[in-house]
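Re: your question from the hallway

Yes, I did run it. Sequences:
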Amino acid sequence: MVDETLKNAVTRIEPPSGWETINLQELKHYRDLFFFLVWRDIKVLYAQTVLGFTWAVLNPAIQLAIFTIVFGRVAKIDTGGVPYLLFCATAVIPWTYMSGAMSASAQSLVQQQNMLGKVYFPRMIFPITPVLSKLVDFAISLILLSAIILYHQVMPTWNMIYLPIFVIMMLVIPASVGLWLSSLAIRFRDVRFAMGFVISMMMYSAPIVYSAASIPDEYRMIYSINPFVGVIEGYRACLLGTEIPWNYIFPGMITTVVLFVTGMIYFRRMERVIVDVI
Amino acid sequence: MSNKDIAIKTENLSKLYRLGALDDKQENVAQAMLSVIKNPIKNYKKYRSTYDFSDISDDEMDLSELNAFWALKDISFEIERGEAVGIIGHNGAGKSTLLKILSRITPPSRGSAEMHGRLNSLLEVGTGFHPELTGRENVYLNGSVLGMRRKEIDTKFDEIVDFSGVDKFLDTPVKRYSSGMRVRLAFAVAAHLEPEILIVDEVLAVGDAEFQRKCLTKMGEGSKSGQTVILVSHNMRAISRLADRVIWLDSGTLKRDGSTQAILTEYLSSVRSICTRMEWSGEDAPRGNVVRMDAVQVENKDGGSPDSFDIRHDIFVRLEYEVLESGYRVRPFFSIWNDEGVNFCVALDQDPAWENQKRPAGRYTSVARIPGNFLSEGVQSIHVAIWTIEPVRERQFSVEEALTFQVIDTMEGDSVRRDFSGDLPGMVRPEFEWNTIHHDASQKPGVKSA
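Structure:
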């Protein structure tokens, strides 16, 4: 009945010390809450819409159509021989997920500030929840991606076995950005206003509508520090069966780990005081 | 563990808050433009200062200059396992801050607290409820927000639904619920938590009276089974029913800590300005053209006027007044109001000696006996008025809340409530005569046959 892990538990309450460790046991206790919050997000997302989950396909589809016309047909961007629609789809699908998860995660604390003041649970659950709930949209939009791949008759290659690495990267990046931005956003509501152009800046900083090969070689390494570059390049190479440019992916992985660790530390530092700043 | 009976222990718990710095006023265009540039830096400092108190190093500093104040200062107490403690105080006394610290919502600025056992706090009912989700889904969501595990909710689900009484609408989105239904469902979830330490804020202020009572009873059961309860409420009846002990906070400090009855009486007399005798002289006296009030007093049979009266004993209301002009029939009367502001009875002077008599001028005293076992527990107020009814029917004057006193039940088992310790509703609590017969037996229990 009653969870035994918290029975006879001693809770000590002290002033914030600046550095807080991550209480894994506590996170474990709250895993059901985590599950229900993710599930709530999913259930509520398309409530009272006519199209429902069709939106999960429609959004990237419309974006793809625009990019294909503007960058593929009009600007005629060089993709190294890959059909533009296919080239762009392999990037837009993970990007749509990442941008959606980042915006939702960044706003998570502000939007649920009422709950912050009323009940305790590990605050980290807030920014992580959208990272998982947006996966449903991602999974649905994979139908679109598969259709495009099938249409171009691209056969899967052994590269596919590396895909999980990029899926993990695709999850960790929005989580890290969310940890950083959500705790910043509660103090500085400016984040909400900045979010729109930051997201589009991020998009153009990654090789989504253009090819990373068009970056001059001497800048390519610096360019690869951007973690989005690694994810997009990785997805593209895995799905299209082209050679995986590991050299240009590792820098992004390091950035991802750094972002994640610092995000966790910063969030832990801020999570106890955010209630007083709302 | 050295002291395993202690459930909660706090040591010098303190919380410093800073008010937002006041904005400077710009007097001309140049200053206004300058402030636009300076604002981002100033705003940053302002937000930072709301949680960073490194500039406040010792107690001697002038806090008002730094726009800071202690919402809570050096609160130390120990609560034993199974104790039910009420926390009272005026608005802004620090009650909510204390609960928020104990619920781990906000950290203390100084001091520490230690709690032994599974903790649940209810600062609000229905936290996390989502209008688009159904009742069933919200039970799971709300339960898990309150720290219940999924399995736990599974096993209690039927009980929760039963308790809430909304079983017919379980699969309807909560946005279609009436607000009453929503509250009942939320309460039902809360009432089925099984924490060892339960922290409850003013949540009993919502919901209909009958349902509140149901929850109070359910919580009362909890405290009997060894659960430690901390309760903040403005409802003094709830406090006196549920708490064995009361902590009185006053502007952030612990003012009194002791038995419920003693502290409540003291608190109520400070808040409700308990007043058991009122005297007037000269110009201040309430008067009409015929009658002038001199004094009113509520007293016991010995003529004393304590702040609180035993529910079992007679209470006397004494009116002293002067009839200034002969030849009028005079009718003194008073009305009794309870602490919810309800006037539940009126008493007119019915002394037969003066019923049809025109009174000569002079001083009079009218005393009314309110029998024991009539008023119910709580704070009672008395409004006084005197009318002339002949030859002119006219109100001479009236005095609202002339007297305020408390009626208490000392729980010795011979009052109307006998050994029942729960909340008893009702504006009055008269003693009725009961007779109960067992039809299969020839005699009453306890009565010996010859």
